[in-house]
Amino acid sequence: MKRMKWLWLFVLLGFLLAACTDDEAVVKKAVKEPVAAEADEPLKIGFAMDTLKEERWVKDRNLFRQAVESHGVRVEITAANGDDARQIAQAEEMIQKGIDLLVIVPHNAEATAAIVHKAHKAGIKVIAYDRLVKNAEIDLYVSFDNEKVGEIQAEAMLAKVPKGNYVFIGGAPTDNNAHLLKKGVFKVLQPAIDRGDIRIVYDQWTEDWAPENAFANMSEALETNGNRIDAVIAANDATAGGAVEALKVQGLDGEIPVAGQDAELAAVQRIVSGTQTMTVYKPIQTLSERVAALAVHLAKGNEFSAIDSINNGKSEVPSVLLEPVAVDEGNIRETVIADGFHTEADVYGGD
Q1: Interior/surface letters 299-331, b for 16+ CB within 10 angstroms, e for the rest
Q2: Which pick of 8, 189, 236, 262 has the fewest CB atoms within 10 Å?
């Protein structure tokens, strides 16, 4: 009798161990085992993007398409270019066409909750790609640790400028990532602020992440502070570019440290030329492959248990958070070039 009890315990333990998988295991399995789609109705993933106006998002589109198709699955991709109504309409059309799963990069974190509701009503799961959708029952969120991105920026700037006047050029207030990044930045800066070592002399959001709006913000910061600025933290490389242009007008480009994120080619080139101090690299090939594998996994009707979660105002959203990487003039070759994100010729211009 005792032998039978032990036997059942071993069987139960085996089931529990088999059920305890993480996202890495799911991804590896999905990569190794392409989907065996039905002959007449292959799986189809919808990818509703916010914009293709920035270099970074064009890379995401191309990498995601390649990753999904490598699993033998079709993908339909749309881009709303910052238009909330258009993004909702594009997603609705894909839902009506009968996609098996929707991946969304929201322009407006709150407005796109309507898309999630419509998808779920049609029995379609939704993955938020890189940006979180607010106030909706999202099935999965996959991104980089955006609060960590802000921490990395602030740590790099404090190392460079431990005392002085700081400008913060935020991202779009409609993007939850912009809020997470700002939280990370000020988490690191606050002790220095409390000590009186640094002063935040300008802090403003940048509508639609537009470089021209960042230029206007930075110009205002310089004017109101009589050009007495010692460091600039910009929410991404597009806004950093706008800030650098405003500094250039005043003949200050290259003199005031500027931080960004995304490791866009123009930003990496600015680091080489000395007009931008650092950026934060988010290996989007890893992101696109991870989301593609998980999208296929869920579209096939499989379950997935994420290790992390983030509250989006509605619920604790199952989340997969990837690690960002600081990039400056000292590690360009070991990071973005080694990964094939940019070529050495493009970065250094053949030097």
Answers
A1: bbeeebebeeebebeeeebbbbbbebbbbbeee
A2: 8
Tens digit of each residue's pLDDT (9 = 90 or more) over 90-145: 999 999 999 999 999 999 999 999 999 999 999 999 999 999 999 999 999 999 99
Q: How far apart are CA 125 and CA 101, in angstroms?
A: 5
Rounded to 5°, the CA angle 48-49-52 comes to 145
pTM of the predicted protein model: 0.80
Domains and CATH numbers, the chain: 22-145+284-323 (3.40.50.2300), 146-281+326-348 (3.40.50.2300)
CA–CA dist 155, 326 (Å, integer): 10
> Token match 């400056």: residue?
328
Q: In what order do the strands lie in the sheet with 101-104?
A: 74-79, 44-49, 101-104, 125-129, 140-144, 316-322, 308-311
Of 146, 142, 119, 99, give the one whose Cα is nearest residue 291: 142
3-class DSSP state for residue 103?
strand
